Amino acid sequence: MTRVADAKPVQLGHAARADGRWRLYAFADASRIALDSLCEYLANSPDSPLQCITLRNTDPDSVFDLRAVLQEFHREVRLEDLPALLLPRKGRYGLVDYEKTFTNDAATDIFDERGVDRERGALVVVRPDQFVAHVLPLDAHAELSAFLRPIFRVKQHCAQHNNIAEEIRRSRVLRRSDTICRPASKSTYSDVGLNDRMAGYWRKADACTSD
Description:
By secondary structure, this protein is of the alpha/beta class. About 30% of the residues lie in helices and about 15% in strands. The strands form 2 sheets. The protein has a 6-stranded mixed beta sheet with strand order 1-6-3-2-7-8, covered by helices on one side. It has a two-stranded antiparallel ribbon with strand order 4-5. Mean pLDDT is about 80; it is low at about 170-195 and about 205-210.
């Protein structure tokens, strides 16, 4: 395939690093309407996995690395026409990541090789160990969310889950090994008020993440 931003031939699988992130490979529909709708859902819907699971003040692709494969050749694609989610600003200086979008190259048509429906497109969900976990239509937004929620132990109230996780992360008394980041002890704070506030966060976090 060809990377749109610099016309570099690449293997899609080689674009992924061993960094523990999930991959969402979106094979665009012919009109790109479904692809644009998916990006809009992921970026802005309160029910989207990105909004539910990705912590605030982190890179938008820190948990889910979305890549898109378009049907056009790279000379026919204008970067400014791509959804903002495929041009995310990342890192300390908010630089744009231009390496999210690919097209067919002259020698290989990945849509024909993999049997992807050109009219509807497809979304391939890949685990961090490169195992294909699910294949969905681009417009299966609710199905994508329903599939990922049990894995990340997220219930319906995504905004509440995200706010609680962010507050706990900011407390800087968290164990690195736990996504919800429980403190080593519930009663080790010198500030009595902080103890009371963290106890409240504990109860809310348990409510959001209990089975």
